[in-house]
Amino acid sequence: MIGLADCNNFYASCERVFNPKIKGKPVVVLSNNDGCVIARSNEAKALNIKMGEPAFKIKPILQKHKVHIFSTNFALYGDLSERVMNTLKSEINKVEVYSIDEAFLDFSDFSSFDRAMSIRKKVKQWTGIPISIGIAPTKTLAKVANHIAKKSTKEGVFVLRERDITRSLQHLAVEDIWGVGRRNAFKLKQYGVYTALDFTNVNIEWLRRKFSINAVRLQKELKGERCYELELKKTKKKNICTSRSFGKETNNYNIIKQAVSNFANTCAVKLRNERSCCYKISVFLMTNRHKASAVQHFPYITLNFNTPTSDSFEIVSKANIALQTIYNNACIYKKAGVIVQSIVSENEVQASLFDTIDRKKRNRLMCSIDKINMLMGRDKIRLAAQGFDRKWKLKQEKLSPCYTTRFSDILSVNI
DNA sequence: TCTGGGGTCCTAGGACCC
DNA sequence: TCTGGGGTCCTAGGACCC
User: Fold this and answer.
1) pLDDT recorded at residue A176
2) Which nucleotide across the nucleic acid strands is nearest to A38, CA versus C1'?
3) A332: burial class by Cβ within 10 Å (0-12, 13-18, 19+)?
4) Buried b (16+ CB within 10 A) or exposed e, A282-310
């Protein structure tokens, strides 16, 4: 059997761990720039606050019910996620960390309701985060089991046995199947497929023809045939993207250049952490698509490196060449981003015949910079192009302390 | 006033080869 | 009159996930 452990309302729960005052109260966490609701406590869900809703649209509800609002604090969530995963690993040998708040667990040795309950209790006790566990024969069914654990059990644990599969699928809407999104749910309903059970009953050839190979796999998984195994090896990323909306829209070239330089540098740092190099870099800009009256412009350009690189100097300067090409000062931009692509492992780099850079020396320099920044704080050493004033930076008005990752933010206790 | 960020996989179609 | 068949590789766009 495969288990799926999923943290309940993860970001909202993180905010509560070190702030007991907000227990039992409605809590929402907003996306970057304090834009949309991306996490809700049960009390906030009960107020009918929807996932992804722009905060400014529901301001009256938030005020009326005294909802506690937080900006995203990824330093906190990332750290608590690691604690949860480590606790799971202390109980289960094979754990696939699937996302910041989810992990697949190998229950092939023995799976029981009681074992899952004790794991759940341990995670709560050790980290303060409540989780739900669903257990079933395949990953997709484990997702179903988790769904049931969250919605219909008091304990937060559900074991989906073979004999109960049909009954469970009957009560699961087709759009709630893992891997069926909005588009395909709409399409399926047009053909009269409304529940997960309906989905398991459609002709497999028809499914292959009308949808994709994934739909076929999905059907098999729902019937208990395993198509997806646990992925225990960490794989290298194939693309790395850093992008942000600006706190304030702008057409100022220098501000945008600073932002793009910072995003490009972050991509380079991420590449070096992965021990990878990239062949290509793309830069994009976006105007505010919600503003009907504004001139819209979504330029995007990709440039190549002759030799794959993770060098900040090269990546940032190439990003700036790209920016120069696509920037148009008649437009007010809302967002910019840098993507590095065609990624290869750093020990598989094929150098260009005409390469002129002393790469060994540059690598040592980058290593030193990374080390110093690790010890002394992010961007302590930076490229001049990154600048200091950060006029493009995001809005984060409701940021909670980094309780676990910054010395000055550690809680003090009065006895 | 105000609307997120970071990924993966699949497919169709174009360009090219012999 | 009449215009093939079998491939590979790359890319953009779509769909999905959290």
Assistant:
1) 96
2) B4
3) middle
4) bbbbbbbeeeeeeeeeebeeeeebebbbb
Do A140 and A218 contact (CB within 8 A), yes or no? Answer: yes
Separation of A58 CA and B1 C1' (Å): 15
Say yes or no: A174 and A302 in one domain.
no
CA of A394 to C1' of C14 (A): 30
- Indicate if A152 and A22 belong to the same structural domain: yes
A120 and A11 in a common domain: yes
Confidence at residue A399, expressed as pLDDT on a 0 to 100 scale: 93
Give pLDDT tens digits for A235-250.
899 999 999 999 999 9
Q: Does a structural domain hold residue A403?
A: no
All protein residues with a CB under 7 A from any atom of strand B:
A 31-33, 35-36, 38, 52, 54, 56, 59, 212-214, 237-245, 249, 270, 288, 290-291, 334-335, 337, 394
Task: Tell me the three state secondary structure of residue A30.
Answer: strand
Whether residue A174 sits in one domain with residue A154: no
Q: Which nucleotide is nearest to A99 (CA to C1')?
A: C18
* A12 and A145 within one domain: yes
SS (H, E, C) A262-297: HHHHHHHHHHHHHCEEEEEEEEEEEECCCCCCCCCC
In this prediction, residue A353 carries a pLDDT of: 80
Any domain includes A185: yes
Res A317: pLDDT: 95
* Residues lower than pLDDT 50 in chain A: none
Q: Which nucleotide is nearest to A341 (CA to C1')?
A: B7
* d(C-alpha A218, C-alpha A210), whole Å: 14
* CA–C1' nearest nucleotide, residue A212: B10
Residue A32, CB-side half-sphere exposure with 13 Å CA sphere: 13
CATH number at residue A261: 3.30.1490.100
CA distance A135 to A144: 9
pLDDT of A373: 96
What residue numbers bound the domain in which A168 lies?
162-222
Q: If you ran DSSP here, which 8-state letter would residue A395 be given?
A: P
Which residues are in reach of strand C, CB within 7 A? Answer: A 98-102, 143, 177-185, 302
Nearest protein residue to nucleotide C14 (CA to C1' distance) is: A183
